[in-house]
Every structure is written in structure tokens, then in C-alpha cells.
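Q: What does the assembled structure look like for these inputs?
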Amino acid sequence: MATDRRAFFKGIAAAATLTVIPTAAIAREKRTASKDAVGLFYDSTLCIGCKACVVSCKEANDMPADVDGYGGGLYDAPEGLNEYTKNVIQLYRDDAEWSYVKKQCMHCIDPACVGACMLGALHKDERGIVSYDPDKCVGCRYCETVCPFNVPKFEWAKAAPKIVKCELCRHRLAVGKEPACSAVCPRKAVIYGKYADLLDEAHRRLEASPGKYVPKVYGEKDLGGTQVIYLSHVDFEKVGFRFDHQESVPNTQQSVQHGLYKGFAGPIALYAILGAVMFRNRRSEDNDKHESGS
Amino acid sequence: MEAHAQHQPVGGKLDTWPFRILLLLGAIGLMLTAWRFAVGLGASTALSDGYPLGLWIALDVVTGTALACGGYAVALVVYIFNKGKYHPLIRPAILTSALGYTLAGLAVAIDLGRPWNMWKIPIYFWNWNLNSPLLEVALCIMAYVGVLWMELSPAILEKFGIRVPLLEKALMWIIALGLLLPTMHQSSLGTLMMLAGPKLHPLWFTPLLPLLFLVTCLAMGYAIVVFESVFSSMAFHRKPETAMLAVLQKIAVYCGLGFVAARLIDLAVRGKLGYAAHFDLYGIVFWIEMVLWVLPAVMLFASPRVTLGSLFRGAMVIAVAGGLYRFDTYLVAFQPGPGWHYFPSISEMFISIGLISLELAAYVVLVKRFPILGGRRAS
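A:
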């Protein structure tokens, strides 16, 4: 049995080597925003929490009121993003400080949801807007599993559920309007524009008023960069941004997967090896039979 | 899987009490499934936007298909490592694999929110997102269910005296496919949770996920063959292949030790081993997994004498260890953020129980009526 075991573990070791070596070899190129990239820029010091953007978003996207939260059905008062709400204003408050924060899809430069989606129901268009096409969606909810901002929501109450998320009002952009949230904001706390211009503006404000903000533009580098960027006067973690490492979520997974599946050569080679080994085994089995006269 | 005369139907009557209970549980599961489609996922499950994948995926698909890797694991020994004498173990192993994977497919169809678009996955190849590990898993599992039933078809056709020469000729290539596909999708089930990235606890998130998932499915595959053979030998009075099972068990045990070593070294190299020292849910669950993986080796070395009992216990621990690791990777170690909780609803549980009951009932029917099990009756 000793030799069998040795052969078996040699096989396992070879398989493991085949798995690991290409993985290390293929480093994935870092994604950058396209030159047509558009986005939003939210400045928490300007926001007065009027929630006009929340109402405007619902109107523009034909979303129902969320009456589950307060007032026994009197108010459309979503607590967070959900299947009725693509954009929301939340409040952070502790003993020392407080801040409003706007939540919607971050339109990541290298989005996990797009990497996850089997048939490209979620995809990035030429302006970098993460868009949704229900015809290609099977409702697997893998996008929800992988999104580091917990943005995509699922219509749990419906028999024919869809994924609900901000698509940067691409239907309004198509007719020359800007997104509903930025269009309605009375304080210009959220502005829409070209991604490069938004970044410039954010840095201009940071430099013009040092000490007013946490010295960082959230989304410039975080999780590989997001096309919605933030300035805040309280720590980003406090207003709900859990992660600030610079690597995009799909980077590790796609590096490994591309290592294993580049050009589909790995699986084809493995299939050929398996077939060849079985062919050889069968022939030696036939020979044995001939020799023993059976 | 040529027509070996060594396989025989067990025979005996089907209408027994355990069988009736299985059918009853299956019927409850099917009724609840109808209800799930009538009222939607929100009302029938405890799933949420924080925990969009639940029991059906973590248990029926991710753990269930690993337990259904017996066919893969034994075929590897028989056809690649050329141990023809293990051939009697192949058919029952392929049968449990075929049933287990079919069950996983059904569970997915119940879990999907828009299952009417499911057919587009294999057809719309121009839309395939080749970066998606889920696409890889979906395509592979769909193909593998077909492959498994083709591998099993000689047993079914044999009963009716039908021979399909073309199938017999092609069978070797089908079997090779039956080795390739699980290698791909079982490792991809690990890659799948790599995309949860920062939402997966550092003790579980590693670039080695595909390798760890592949090793666990092999260990669990061998364990389940041992488990099932011992069980069948008792339930259907067959002579157990104790010596062969002992070897498979040993392979499973070594896979487990390899898994533990790979995981600890990986955590140490990437500097995440400190998380294992935290006395929190994750640290505790991590060490339970580790102990469960090492335990069968301890049992093996402590009392090397092989009995049916020792085989059964060892296989059980390995199956539980692997199941727990996979379950943890998908649910326990998944951290969607503050405020989210998940515990499966009663209907989720009974749909899973119903599916598993139907699988077991189908197993009983097939081994009693078709030439699946080794033919030697215990004297």
C-alpha cells in the first residue's frame, strides 16, 4: 500500500503545485477610471439633511414609499438602502460630533458585483456607471454577497424580484439631465460631474480649508477607487465606511482565477492528462488480461 | 463502469417504515417549496440583504456537493491511480454523487429569485462573464449532473437488458470529464467566497481557498464512500469491503492533515495567525474545525485495528469537519456588517430536509431495484 499512497500524494502535490504556481505568476493590472468616467461628490459639511435627494430619487426612479420604519405608515422614511430606496441620507451622532451621510451605489472603478455577475446583468458602461439589466439576472444575489458597501438590494417581497441599486439616473443622463439627487440638492452638498473634475474639486476644498475635513478624499483610492467620492468632517468609519484598504475586492480572486484558467489552458491540459492516464491504464489492464489468458 | 456482473440489485420490498417517513418528509418539503414560489423568498425565508445566501446554498449546495464527491474520489483511485480492485465501490459512489448533485441543482432552482432566466446561463455564451466564479460553478455543475447520470446509465440500462455500444465507447471520455469537472467547480466554490473579500473573516479568507475546497471535497468524498458502504452493509446485509474502505479512510485522514497544515502555514505566512488566538466566535469555531480535522488521525493512530465501527466513526468526523469548514466559509465567517443576523427559517429547514429525504428515498429505490451495490451477500 505504501507505494500507492506515495503515488497518490505525488498526484495531490502535483495538483497543488499546478494550482499555486500560476497563481503567483499572474499579477492583475490595476483598473483605472475611464476618461469619460462620471460620478458624484458629496461633502458632508454642506449637507443639511433635508432629504430632498431621497424624495427626488424615488420620483425619478419610480420607487415606492418605505413606510415600514416610522409613524405607522404615514411617512416615507427609509432607515437605509433597501428594495424601495436607492439613495438615502443617514445621521451619525455621538457625544462629541455628528454628521449626515449620503448612501447610494459607489460605482466602484473595479466593482465586485460586476466581477460576480454571471451573465453581466450588472456591468460597467463606458462612463463607468454600474448598470443593471434584469433580462440577464437569475436572482442569485451573489452581487449582494460580495459588495463591500452592501449596496445591491433584492425585492424580497415580490414574486418576480429584481436587484435594486442606484444607476446614477442613467435614464436622465440619456436625455441630457443630471442625476435627480444632485439636481435637487439645495446646498450643492452632492454634485455630479466628470470624475476627474470631481477629484480636483475635492482636493481644492481640502487645501482651501485645512482642519475642516478629515484629510482624505474617500473613494480616491479606497477599494481600488470609487466614482462616488466623499469629504467628511467625522471619521469615515463612523459614518459607515467599514473598509479603507486600497486593493479592489476582485483583485485577489481574479488574479487566482486568471492564473488557473488563462485561455482555458489549465482545464484542457488537465483533461488531456486524465484521458491519457486512463488510456494507458486501460491498455495495461488489457495486456494483463491477455497474459493471464482471461 | 462496464457491465460488471459483480453488481446486483438488493431486492426486498420498498414499502418499509423508514421509506414512508422519507416520503412524508419529502412531501412536506415539496409543499413548502410550492409555498415558497407562491409567497416569494421574503416571506418564506430568513434571508436578507445582509445574508442573501443561506441554508440552501451553504448546506445543500456547498456542503452537499462535497459529500457527493464520492464518485469523484473513488473514480480518481480506480481510473487514475489504476486500482481496479476498488471497482465494486464505484457504482454506489456514482449513485450518491448523481443524487447529491441533482439535489444541489434543485436547491439552487428553489433559491434563485428569477429561476425562469436560469436556462440563459448555458445558452447565452456571448454574455458569459468569465471572471465570475459562480458562472464557472454553475456551468460545471450543470454539466456534471449530466455526466454523472451518463456514468450511472449502464447500471440503469443493464436492468432492462439494453446496451448502447456508442455510450460504452465514449464512457472513458465521459469519466475523464467526470474527473475534470469536480476539480474545477469544487475549487471554484472556494474562489467564490474570495470575492466576498473584506466581508470574509481573515481566518477564512485566503488565496488558497480553491485548494482548501478541493482538498476538503476529496476528504469528504472518501469519507462518505466509507460511511455509505458501512451503512449499506448493515442495512442491506452486504459483506463490507473493510480492507479497501480502510485505505480510503486513510487517504481522507491524510487529506485532512494536509488541509490543517496548509491552512496554518498560510495563515502564518500571511501574518493572520493572531486571529486564531482571539477568544471570540471566530477563534473558537476555527479551532473546532482544526480539532475535528485532526481527530480522525488521532483515532487512527491510537487504535490502528480497523473495525466497521472505527471506520464509521472516523468517516463521520471527517464529513462533519468538512461540512463545518464549508458552512463556516459561507455563513459563520461571512460578516456583512453590524445589524445583520441570519438563522434559517422553519420552511428553509424543512425544504432542505425534504430534499435530502427524497434523495435518500431515491437511493433506496435504486439500490433495491438496480444493479448498484457489490453483489456479495454476507453469509
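DSSP finds nine helices and nine strands in chain A.
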